Amino acid sequence: MPIEAPVDPFSPPSDSVLWKRNFLLGAATAAYQIEGAVDEDGRLPSIWDTFSAIPGKVLAGDTGARACEHYQRWETDLDLLSELNVDGYRLSIAWGRVMDEAGRPNKKGIEFYKRLVGRLKEKGLKTFVTLYHWDLPQYLEDRGGWLNRDTVYRFADYADLMSHELAGQVDAWATLNEPWCSAYLGYGNGHHAPGLANGRYATQALHHLLLAHGTAVPVIRANDPGSMVGIVANVGKSSANSNSEADARAAHLFEVQHNAWILDPLLKKSYPKDLFELWPGTEPLVLDGDMEAIGAPLDFLGINYYFRSNVKSDGAHGFTEVPLEGVERTQMGWEVYPDGLRDLLIGFKETYRNLPPVYITENGMASDDKVVDGRVDDPQRISFLKRHLAAVDSAVKAGVDVRGYFIWSLMDNFEWAFGYERRFGIVHVDYETQKRTLKHSAQLVAKFLAERNARA
Length: 456
Ligand code: IFM
Known about the structure:
Blueprint (H helix, E strand, L loop, with lengths): L23 E5 L2 H4 L12 H6 L17 H15 L3 E5 L2 H4 L8 H16 L3 E7 L5 H4 L8 H16 L6 E6 L1 H10 L10 H25 L4 E13 L4 H24 L6 H4 L11 H5 L5 E14 L5 E3 L16 H14 L6 E6 L15 H19 L4 E7 L18 E3 L6 E3 L1 H16 L1
Parallel strand pairs: 1-2, 1-9, 2-3, 3-4, 4-5, 5-6, 6-8, 8-9
Antiparallel strand pairs: 6-7, 10-11
Helix pairs in contact: 3-5, 7-9, 8-9, 13-14
The structure holds 5-hydroxymethyl-3,4-dihydroxypiperidine.
5-hydroxymethyl-3,4-dihydroxypiperidine (IFM) binds next to loops.
């Protein structure tokens, strides 16, 4: 299917929210995907160091050991943000860099993040910090990881330490990135670290992840009252493979599993009943007070959106995916479906009366980008970003309080089970030389933002 290649890709209509100076446009990364330096300055191993070292778990045997060498190159990487003219940067902290097994602070690791957020402040950028983007310290996994309720309290200690150390320097704290992935891919089907595969584990791990979030929220607020506190959820759009009632139900269950499983406890203080129709007998152990803690009011909700899935009934309780033919797809094989983002946002506003202000904390796509004569042409990404930004604008016009959008990702990086083959960056990284090259999409983002800033 040919992709739409707009002539003037970053020229939104004059009434678009993108022209507004207070609508934040930024770029995002995560620690394990870019930092490398896994043995430096007292950093402890994470579940991703362990998992990626197991043959067959990550494409081509790639690991995050070197990644983008951001731990060494952070200053010039932050200069890329200035070149792009973006308003903000979303990063994550590696838990195992800043705290030892006994819960004692690791000064060197903490200093690294202090320098980072300090420089972002100097540059006048809004700083969004995620505490947990999947890299659980291995010593905690050895004690049961997210299946062990004690991890909740270890996370609260970690959140306490970092929100105290970085107080006044961070604009928005996200406790967790995509708890769905940590729980389902990590404990439910084993595609991600720690690689366990048991449905009952997935729901219990998710419960502990959300409880860790809810327990940390008041701690962060107390330490850093001037910042926002929230959480980041990945959400998925589904379509039914036919008009049958069974397929419509399958499409509904897909969104229950991907969206309501996470958002209902956060925003309604209960798990969706339909989830346990899909996964009978997997109810987690919930103690008195847990749901109240999980439902702590949020200053913002981060939404990560990538694609739509077409599903049909599996003939029993659930759904099965039936890839649509003839649709545009990315290097990941994911369908490009911008309307899904608009429809989900509008749907969330209707479902959750208490929906907090939303930031799109990730959206972007992978393509097999190459440097040719010093240039990287990525027309599909340009078109992708343009259409998804237009979808966000429509959601805003329909009344959804969306306040910003972060491109995933600032630069090519370690794409988890897919290693370095899948390139999500707007900046190309040559992993041999570590040379960074702005892709065409990055140049257009920079141009648009320069024009927006000049008008304001
Ligand atoms: O690279 C990931 C990121 O770490 C979490 N959200 C999805 C991205 C693309 O798969």
